[in-house]
Amino acid sequence: MSPDKYKKLIKLRKRLDKLDNSLIKLIKKRTNIVNEVLKLKEFKNQIVDNKRIKIILAQIKRKSVKHNIDPKITKKIWYNMIRAYIDYERRNFRKK
Fold first, then answer.
1. Which class does domain 3-92 fall in?
2. Rounded to an integer, what distance in angstroms lies between the CA atom of residue 29 and that of residue 15?
3. Which of 2, 3, 70, 71 could form a disulfide with 61 if both were Cys (CB 3.0 to 4.6 A apart)?
């Protein structure tokens, strides 16, 4: 890799790091909302809503196409995020 390309690579990686920091803050906000949702659930079987998951993934696909983003990428990201939060809810569920 040429020195010029390496410098550009470093700059791009710094931009990615800055963006990652913003994503962490958004994930924290999302987690706070998930905690509020979890407080409303009375039974552990209310954690997974497959119908809602399908709707969310379909919406993400449409939005991805609209914004010219590869929908395979966003589907994987959202699917994994949903699964991670399902696991989080199961670990933090408190029966009332």
1. mainly alpha
2. 22
3. 71
